[in-house]
Amino acid sequence: MSWKQNLPAVRGKLLADEALAPFTWFRVGGPADVVFLPADEQDLADFLKALDPAAPVLAIGVGSNLLVRDGGVDGVVIRLGKGFNAVEPLGDSRIKAGSAVPDAFLARKAAEAGIAGLEFYAGIPGTIGGATIMNAGCYGSETANVLVSARVMDRRGEVRELATDDLHFTYRHSALQDAGLIVLDATFEGLPDDPATIKARMSEITARRETTQPIREKTGGSTFKNPPGHSSWKLVDEAGWRGKPFGGAMFSPLHSNFLINTGEATAADLEGLGDTVRADVLAKTGVRLDWEIKRIGRA
Hints:
The protein has helices at residues 41-50, 103-112, 128-134, 164-167, 195-212, 232-238, 267-285, and strands spanning 13-19, 31-37, 57-60, 66-68, 73-79, 87-91, 94-98, 115-116, 137-138, 141-142, 147-153, 159-163, 182-189, 191-192, 218-222, 249-251, 258-261, 294-296. The chain is of the alpha+beta class. It folds into 3 domains: 2-82, 2-Layer Sandwich (Uridine Diphospho-n-acetylenolpyruvylglucosamine Reductase, domain 2); 84-210, 2-Layer Sandwich (Uridine Diphospho-n-acetylenolpyruvylglucosamine Reductase, domain 3), CATH 3.30.465.10; 219-296, Alpha-Beta Complex (Uridine Diphospho-n-acetylenolpyruvylglucosamine Reductase, domain 1). The strands form 6 sheets. A 5-stranded antiparallel sheet has the order 6-7-13-11-12. Strands 1-2-5-3 form a 4-stranded mixed sheet, with no helix packed on it. A hairpin with a 2-residue loop joins β9 and β10 (141-142).
C-alpha cells in the first residue's frame, strides 16, 4: 500500500489505522487503513485529486445503517462532518441540506420554514447523504418524493449536480449506490403549511418511533428490506427470532426487524445472526429477506 506513504496534505484530519467502531451506531468493527475528516468541500476535492488512484475510497456519515466487519476496511474511509452540515431554506418551499445534516434536524428546519412533506425524516436515523443514497423513507413517504437534486463529487474530486430522474430511485436504492459518488448536499421541495401544524405531525412521528423502536440501543435501524407483500418484522417474529440471543447479538424484543448489540457483540455475531435468520425465514416461508443495513470490510 504505497499510497499510504504518500497521502496528500489536508486541512482536516488524517487518522491512520483508526478503529471504525466509534463511528457506527452498532459500535463494532475493525480499523480503516486511513480515516479522513475533511474540513470542507474544497479540502475533500483537493485530497481526492491528489490521492493515488489505487487507493480505495468510501464515504460514510454517522454510521447509523452501517455494519463494519471485524477485519476492518481497506483504503480511505471519509467521514463527512462539520463542513457538510449547513441547512438553508431557499424559498418556494425548497430547502437545501448538507450531506452530514441529521435527517431529523432537516425535518425540524423545514418545519420552522413552513415546509411540509419532510416530516417523515423525523423518524429516520442517519444523515442526508445516506438518505439520498438509499432512498430512505418511513411512515408512507420516502426521499424520492421530496428530493429535487443532489450535488455529488466523484473519485477525481469533480463536482456535478444530479436531478431526481438521474438517481433512478427504487425501494431503498438509487443509482448512487453503485456509482462511487459522494453526496455533498441535496435540495428538497415540500408544500407550504403552518409551522405549528407541521411540528405537531412531527411530534406524532417521534412519539410513535420512541414507543415502537429500540432507539436507545446499539442498533442499525431496520435490518432487512420489506419483501414485496410482506413485513420483515413479522417474518422474523413468526420464525421465532424476536429477543433470541445469538452471541452478543439479538433481534430486539421491541421491534423484531431491529438487530441490536446487547453489549459485547462482534460484527461477526451481528452479521451471523442476520444471515441465520435470513436462511431460517427462507426455509420456513420461501420468502427471501435482503439486507437493508450496509455491511463493509473484511470478516
